[in-house]
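Quick start: what a row looks like.
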Amino acid sequence: MSSLSQIDLREIAESRRSKLATLKPVDPEELERQRIERKNAVKLKEIIREAASYLSFFLVVLFLSYQARSKNSFYVHKDLSNSLLNNREMAFGDIQSRDDLWNYIEKVFVPSMYAPRWYNDKKISWREKLTTYNRYFLRVGASRIRQLRIKEDSCIVNSKMAKLFDHCRDNYNWMDDDTRDYDVSWKPIVNGTLTNSSSTRAEAGIKKRKTKWKCQNAWCYQNTLQTKSTPILGKFTTYKGGGYGVSLGRTLERTQRLLTALKSEKWIDELTRAVFMEFSLYNPNVNLFSSGTLVVEYLSTGAATTYQAISVFNLYNHLGSFGIVVLVFEIIYIIYIIYFLIVEIIKIKDQKCKYFKQFWNLNELVIIIFSIVSMAMYIMRTLFTNLAIKTVFESELGEFVNFNTIGLWDEIFNAVSAIVVFCATLKFMKLLRFNKHIGILAATLKHANQDLLGFSATFGIIFMAFTQFGNLIFGSKNPYYKDFVSSLSSTFRFSLGQFNLKELQDSNYVLGSVYFVIFILLVIMGLMSMFITILDQAYHEVKEEIEARGDNDNEIVDYFFEKIKKLKPKKKKNKRKHSSELNVSTTSLRVNIKQSDKMDPFYSTSFKSLNFSSASQYESHESMSLY
C-alpha cells in the first residue's frame, strides 16, 4: 500500500511539474511598458496638482489686478483730454509763447475747472459751484498754477558779443533756479513789506521766514515740503517740486479777478522756465479720482513746448458687497505669497547657489519680491489717500491738495502688478515643459546662447553707430533724430522696416540716401539673416540630440491624451460582444477546471490557489498602472 502511495505521489508530483511548466514568467517588455506607464501616471498627477494650485493663484492675481483698473478709466481720461488738451477754443499743444499761455489759461483751463451758468441764465447752486464745466467731476480742493524761474545772469555771454547784450539767461537747472521772495512784479522786497495790489489782496501776504508761518503769496517761493509736490520729469529736464504757486479761488469770478491781476503785473516773464497747471478731480458716478499736471516749458532759445500727465485711479476698492469679495481675494493672495515664500526659502536652503542658476526659480523669486513690493505700495497709497482726504476737509476745498503724488504711487503700483502678472503668465510655460515643441524651443535658446551673445555684441556696436550717425546728421532738422534717445528709437523702428526715406532725404539728400542703402544692406539683409541662421542651426542640432537621446519626457502628453480617450464611453454593441466573449471564456475555463478536478484533485487545489494568487497580483499591478 505504501509503494502504491509513493507511486501515486510521484505521478501526482510529475503531473504537477508538467502543468507548472506551462506557466510562463512575466514578459520583460510588458513589465517595462507597465513601469513606463506607472512613471507617466505619477508625472501626470504631479503636473495636474501643480497646474490646479497655480491656476487658482493666477486667477487671484488677475482678479486683483484688473479690479484695481476700472474699465471707465479710459473714458474719463478721454473726457479730460478733450476738454483740456484738444479743446475747440485752443489746443494745449498750440502754446508757443507767454501770450498763448495766458490765452489758454483764461479760455480753456479756468473755464474747464468751473461750472458755468445754465442755458436759461439760472444761477448755479453752491454744490454745482464745486463741479467742473460738464458737472460730472467734483474739484477735490482748488486748482493751482505754479512756476519755476531762473536767476538773472545765470550764464556768461560770449566776450565778443558782450557789448551787445547785458544779460544772459540759461535753461532751467537746479543750481541756478531762483528761490528768493519778491514784491509785486518781481521787485525786491523793501523793509519786509509787500506792495498792496490786486494779487496780494487776493492772496495772503508775506510773513517772516523765522516763524512757523509760511509764505502763501504768488510772489514768494515755496519749497517741496510746502507745496507737497514731487519733482517732475519734463521733456527737457527734471523740475523741482517747489516754486512760485497760486491756488485758484472757489468761484469762477474770484479766479478771473486774480488771474487778471497776475497778468497785468507780469507774473510770467522772461525768467520763467516752466509753468505747471495742476488739478485734482473726483467723479462719484464711477468712483474714480483724476489728477493732472499740464506743463509748459520755456527754453533759453525762446521756444516753448508742452507736456501733460493725467492719471485716473481708483482709491476705494472695498465698497459694498463687491468690496468684501475683493478683501477675501486679497487675504487669499497674501496666504499664497507666504506659502510660496516658505517653499522658496526651503529650496534655497537645500540647493544653495544652484538655485539661482535655474530660470524658473528666478521667475518665482521675482513674483514673490514684486508681490511683497506691491503690498507695501498698496499700504502706502492707502495712507497717502487718507492724509489727502483729511487735508481736503480741513481746508474746506479752498486750497490745492496734491493728488499727483497718489497718482504716481498708483501708476507705480500698477506697473509692479503688471510685472507680477507677466511673470505669473510666463510660468505657464513651465507647466508645458513636457510638450515637445516647447521643450525644443527652450533647448534651442539655451544651446545658442553663446552664439547669440556674440551676435548681440556685434549688432549693438553697428546699431549704436547708425544711431549716433543719424543724431549728428539729421538731428538739427528731423524731429525723430533730435536727440540721442529719439535717434535710438527711430533706428530701432528702421530695423523693423518702419522708415520714411523722404524725411531722410529732406534732411540731407546725399547722406540720407547713403544712410538708407547701407542700413538696408548691413543690418536688415546681413545681420538679420545671420540671426536667423544661428537659430536654425541650433534648432536642428537640438532636435537631433533629443532624437538620439530618446528623451521620454515628451511622452507624458501622449499618455494624457490616451487616458482621455479611455474615458470615452464604449458603444453598447461592443459591450455585448465583449460580455459574450467573456462568458464563453469563463465557461470553457470552468469546464477545464472540472476536468482537472476529476483527473487530479491535489493538483486542482494547488492550481486554483496559484491561479487566484496570480490574478490578484495582476489586478493590483493593473490598478497601480492606472493610478
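That is the whole record. The longest strand covers residues 272-283. Confidence is low (pLDDT under 50) at residues 204-214, 584-627.
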